[in-house]
Amino acid sequence: MSDKTMPFTAYSFQHYLGQGKLKASRCPDCQRLFLPVRSLCPDCGQIDLEWVELSGKAKLAAFTSVYIGPTFMNQEGFSREKPYLTGIVELEEGPRISARLLGLSPEDPTGIKIGTPLVFTVHEIGQADSSTIQLAFSSEE
Questions:
Q1: What CATH number has the domain spanning 57-139?
Q2: Per-residue pLDDT reduced to its tens digit, 66-84
Q3: Listed residue (105, 103, 62) closest to 83, CA to CA
Q4: 57-84 as b/e, with b when 16 or more CB fall inside 10 Å?
Q5: Contact (CB, 8 A) for 52 and 25
Q6: Where are the beta strands (DSSP E) in the chain?
């Protein structure tokens, strides 16, 4: 399927993540970017949006250490003794999105600074036959 025929859905977004691409939808009239993707521009009403690949460069806008996570994260070994990080990142192109944070210390969040440069990465969790791809960002260091 080409970008022109790919619908603006969570499934399509995941499909692109599986290819190692971070894509957003963009309104061709007002140029506004949407991430998570959407098929209708709320500003001008345009319905013929387009897929745009983003640079993957971002900065940390907010974060939290998660000590009690969902079952699938507990199955990955995360717990009260081994937390993980999630946060809001602001992409170089403007949109903000929540994502898993890698390469930063969830055990010592006092060392994490808002504004830290991050880069897009794809993180796979689970076993090979039932793995899931997560949107993630890691520190550039």
A1: 2.40.50
A2: 888 777 777 777 788 888 8
A3: 105
A4: ebebbebebeeebeeebeeeebeeeebb
A5: yes
A6: 23-26, 33-34, 50-53, 57-66, 84-91, 96-102, 117-125, 132-139
How many angstroms separate the CA atoms of 113 and 2, rounded? 39
The alpha carbon dihedral of 51, 55, 56, 60 has a sign of negative
With CA atoms as reference, report the closest residue to 99 among 69, 127, 64.
64
DSSP collapsed to 3 states, 83-118 = CEEEEEEEECCCCEEEEEEECCCCCCHHHCCCCCEE
| 50-53 β-sheet, strand order | 33-34, 23-26, 50-53
Domain boundaries, the chain: 10-53, 57-139
Q: How far apart are CA 51 and CA 55, in angstroms?
A: 13
pLDDT at 131: 72
C-alpha to C-alpha distance for 90 and 110, rounded to whole angstroms: 20
For 26-40, the pLDDT digits (tens) are: 999 999 999 989 889
Model-level pTM? Answer: 0.85
